[in-house]
Design a protein that fits this description.
Chains A, B, C, D: One of its GO terms (molecular function) is argininosuccinate synthase activity. Chains A, B, C, D: Pathway: Amino-acid biosynthesis; L-arginine biosynthesis; L-arginine from L-ornithine and carbamoyl phosphate: step 2/3. The structure is a homotetramer of 407-residue chains. The first copy, chain A, is an alpha/beta fold and 407 residues long. In chain A, 40% of the residues lie in helices and 19% in strands. In chain A, the strands form three sheets. Chain A has a five-stranded parallel sheet, with helices on both faces. In chain A, strands 10-9-8-13-14 form a five-stranded antiparallel sheet. In chain A, strands 6-7-12-11 form a four-stranded antiparallel sheet, with no helix packed on it. The model of chain A has no long low-confidence stretch (mean pLDDT 95). Chains in contact: A-B, A-C, A-D, B-C, B-D, C-D.
Chain lengths: 407, 407, 407, 407
């Protein structure tokens, strides 16, 4: 362990990662660089500075990455209508590659030879951090304390804190959740505790970012989202930066009881786990993006996207954002978004985010003169359908004549 | 046109198909056999008998196909978590293959040489009827009056009725909708009229099977669905037939404002069209099925299903239910459902169908002793994760060492 | 038919398309513009000028498109290792989009309102020409004489020639093949005649571009192909243009009995058909491209390409080169080729095109120090494999413990 | 290491696995059960008995698994036209699941608590053995000596032999290859040594099962293969068991210089490796199976198979034969083979295995009356093609009218 001189730690300022600072200093006899990012988790990041300093950290990075996060990670992912296992909006997964990237960049800047993080050995996050780090800095070393140390019970951890004068109310006075939580501008997640019983319905006060549908206003809220190349650029006509778009949607959705999800998912490391997620803004963004695409995107492009989406979602979930295959898929996806321009009108009401209108001045492929049930003045020759059907049926007829049975 | 002696018509008893009866008799100088099926559209089918008789039809088939419809078509489709274009539950599409099958079976029984239907030349339904018919009876002839005749305006149609003594209130006294509608036990659809403007929000009284979320009860309804091999066999412990399951779910969902969808979709014949759909029960069934699978289905089986689902949905939408490729995919899907057994608890509330619990006595693959955040007593060795990550990262590291950039 | 003033015809200079010139002039009373392209079919194109002129054609386009054909169509397709139905190198399919593009460009230049071609109503080529034309010029009209006229027997055609003073030896004195043939720089195809019996082995003298393996030299020929970004830029160190690369490979392969294929394929219009193809150069290019990729392309990028290749091939075969979905797939494919640089050594011998070596100075991902069976000096920690296997097995073990059977 | 009482070893009778016998006895102080299978590797298995006995092994399993191997593993795999990375016939991969299955079955029979194998920590085979074992016997322990011991050089291994009186000419007097080889009835593989330079062409005498194309007979050999449900049941009219079919094809192909492959492949554990393979019979079987399918299999079924094949191949290569997803895919594949019946005629000549004819008495979907270039007597209405093309082009035209560019 003597070959580690300096390590960059993804440092939240909380108790666990504070313990890691000490443990790294002691175990590896190395310098620790802390990196604390505001990715919209809704907590102050500045207090991490004093804490790190108090533990003797000399190089302290505190950064606001919210715009970069939404612009370069969340938005590209939503262009693909991405859902993992049909339901999960990948709120945790999508934040990890950005952290991994900054960790190794800071390691290079500071001459560190390793990075470290506070993710456990059972979860997906260790994989996402480390695959990203290795992909961007192949010579980097990774220290994953939770896989190495023996502080694997709350008691041992507390003892370690006492031994090393780490104040146990480090994380502040805020109400302690019984759940393991992770938050960023896209979502907040809950795991562990009672959720380990998949039959158990979470109690109302677990949820933090949204009111319940029951508690939401009795009148709906209508909003209009403006899209350019598949990304939201304005809400109700007001142009906003990516992070501001997502912040505002989180507020609107959360106020209307929108964005809760309760699932059992399959982790990359092999087990099933229960997760509850609040993704208020994202829960509006998914159907809204599909709606603007429904008007402006060619059918076969849309179907091609749908056919590769599960793979794309799996890559992000499994931690392969920084991989050539994700990039190649992104090229395909982005190539379809040039004309995904226009407006979507959404109704928000007690948990429901409903598309009620979509329009595009220049890029609509919806041609009412063809689709109409009224006289179309020759725009479409119904007789063409006969040949279309006949030739599509030809192989089926030949097989049936051959005596093939369809059962 | 002299080679048609007898034609089996999919006859609703309504005005349009009544016109077709007359038009076929006159144009082809042939006998018409009418086939009217109860597939849960919510209208009496028996009145069709007298109407057909009045027009001189001698062979009249009136059948209750609700159980067959749900058991052999709806249920298999839901095993695949099928959605067309990410959103549409395929309510219209899935009823067509059954009608096509009965049409050609009746043609064989009655010695008819052709079938006929009332679908227009612009839509998907003509394709679904005809592909199905050709696949099952390769020598059958198809007469699609809307592609052939010149009664392509309301006035001409009315004139034809007058000329042939067809009472124009044939369809009964019920409120006339301004929309083109289609219904079966799975859903009701609305097209045309104001909906041809995709920015226009449908008025509340268009919807027929559900109350609005606003009008739904202020207290949630909880239900428990019991699954066997991927199919619902009981609601709240009461064993029900497939059609009874769906009927009951329709009622429960409709009462709670659940099941409305408003989309622009891509038709197989090439244009985009606006459709509004009410699929009350189906909107419960989709997340519920995913929930029971989340507990009982292997990860890679689930992902494999997800990867072929868009293709499977496209096949059904496009009318290829009766095709060898749909059957081959069904084999794959059904092979995954043997252990999809257990219960799902759902909360129904003002438009939301939310999974709040899932359990399986014998088939749960959720292993709390492994997934736990607590001490797992050695069920999972966290150190394994290092090797897992290292080998998964190997190709990425080699590439990065080679100087490859990921951007 | 009075609304056609001018039509651009894909004119080979042969008998059939000469008949079409006359038939168009007469039937549509319109001006005909002829377009004759050298795409490497191995026949003089210049003689078409005099023939067209003799029939009164005023606007005559004769173009050498060989470089454009290989550079913009053949090369991009080979980047994807494209095979239709596992075997067919798409020699005919890939030439059609270029012809379609020039037809509509010439139509625009000359103010023509229609295009025309000599493809029959049973084949894929009509589809490829017309889809391409419609995609690039949505308002164009298409005249497909073989679907319209009644000259559907050799006798009627000859009578038409006699009536219109078209010399029946128009196509020249060269030996008449009993097969329907099509050629370009990538391949030559044979259909019809005896080939309509799929059990019948084609006689040796059907093949035109290659000697038989039996007649090929008894000594092998070795060549080295140099790749840049997935495209061949040099043979045996000599830099060549795309068309010159393909010409030279055709010669080398043909001389060594390489490139024959005899298959039954599935046409887009619904029937199976027997086709024999000679694709000499292409038969070298496919394994060579795979070989250079095997050294320089990341595993998952390669597998991703393989997973979309059948779809990509189908698009080209079916005539959707000019479609947004083909373009989106091309973006994905091209994004993987930046590092596909290096040399492949091939042995050509009596029908076999065998890879015997591959190297890349800067882009090889083959790391002998890791892969070696010898001591690797710590480049790879074999113990990592245990964790890798254990976690990959976890879901399988949980299922087996649950009593799941794998059979 | 005290918890292992008995271990079943995949024992070849060669030096390495003999060392493992001793090493296991000594290291784990446990009983060793040897399992030696004839899967067509072309070496006597019976001598393994005396060797095992001499080392004190009491339970010795020696089995002829050739028929089971071909019938239950090779044949199902060939139904899918399986190729890994476009070229590799998976000869090594497909034998592993059978060995894994027998290992755990014997463990159960003999009350052993572990299995062991002689695969290294760098290769795919360890993964295949162990995933299979864990999937079938979730509680089994696995001992992989090459990942554990320190005998990682030839010298240490020799010293171990000397120390434990293991005769170093254990493997017999046969010529020692400089390559790492693996053989079964489907193929023989070569790795390591000079092959670690991917530019190096293997010397002629490396290959063992085939003559070179140059040395093959100057006259071709013709054979006819008869298929039932996708499997070969007879050669030249003689019904043969699966293993006899493959043996005979190996002989025919090997004699004609057929079946050599030289590739760089991507291992599951993350690195690229060079492999040379001789798969004589398999190299005939692949195009032959495609040929009989080309006549008897529906187009869309064939394309569906092609679209999932890369995934299926990857599963087998990576060691997931014993997984629910492979089984689900197998259901899909097998569902397409019911009508894959008939004969394929192949020409074997100096490295080439060429299809020259295919026929099926009852299951041919090739309809010459439709496909013909001659008059088809109305079997196909060429005018249908116009509607087919028009509707397929509709979305492209609408997009082009909207001003979309295709580039």
């Amino acid at each position: 362990m003597s070959d580690i001189n300096k390590v960059v730690l993804a440092y939240s300022g909380g108790l666990d990662t504070s313990v890691i600072v000490k443990w790294l200093q002691e175990t590896y006899n190395c310098e620790v660089v802390t990196f604390t990012a505001d990715i919209g988790q809704g907590e102050e990041v500045e207090p991490a500075r004093a804490k790190a300093k108090a533990m003797g950290v000399k190089e302290i990075y505190i950064e606001d990455l919210r715009e970069e996060f939404v612009r370069d990670y969340v938005y590209p992912m939503f262009r693909a209508n991405t859902l993992y296992e049909g339901e999960y909006l990948l709120g945790t997964s999508i934040a990890r590659p950005l952290i991994a990237k900054r960790l190794v960049e800071i390691a290079e800047e500071t001459g560190a030879d390793a990075i470290s993080h506070g993710a456990t050995g059972k979860g997906n996050d260790q994989v996402r951090f480390e695959l990203g780090a290795y992909a961007l800095a192949p010579g980097i070393q990774v220290i994953a304390p939770w896989r190495e140390w023996d502080l694997n019970s709350r008691e041992k951890l507390m003892q370690f804190c006492e031994d090393h004068q780490i104040p146990v109310d480090f994380a502040g006075k805020k109400k302690k959740s019984p759940y393991s939580m992770d938050a960023n501008l896209l979502h907040i997640s809950y795991e562990g505790g009672n959720l380990e019983d998949p039959w158990w319905e979470p109690e109302e006060d677990m949820w933090r970012w949204s009111v319940s549908p029951e508690a939401a206003p009795d009148a709906p809220t209508y909003i209009t989202l403006t899209y350019e190349k598949g990304d939201i650029v304005a809400i109700d006509g007001e142009r906003l930066s990516p992070a501001d778009v997502l912040s505002k949607l989180n507020k609107l959705a959360g106020d209307n009881g929108i964005g809760r999800l309760d699932i059992v998912e399959n982790r990359y490391v092999g087990m099933k786990s229960r997760g509850c997620y609040e993704t208020p803004g994202g829960t509006i963004m998914l159907p809204a993006h599909r709606a603007i695409e429904s008007l402006t995107l060619d059918r076969e492009s849309a179907h091609l996207k749908d056919s590769v989406m599960p793979k794309y979602a799996e890559l992000i979930y499994n931690g392969y954002w920084w991989s050539p295959e994700r990039l190649a898929l992104q090229k395909l996806i982005d190539a379809t978004q040039d004309n995904v321009n226009g407006d979507v009108r959404m109704k928000l009401y007690k948990g429901n985010a409903t598309v009620v209108g979509r329009q595009s001045d220049n890029d609509s492929l919806f041609d009412a003169s063809i689709a109409t049930f009224e006289d179309d003045a020759g725009a479409y020759d119904q007789k063409d359908a006969e040949g279309f059907i006949k030739l599509n049926a030809l192989r089926l007829r030949i097989a049936a004549k051959n005596g093939r049975k369809l059962s």
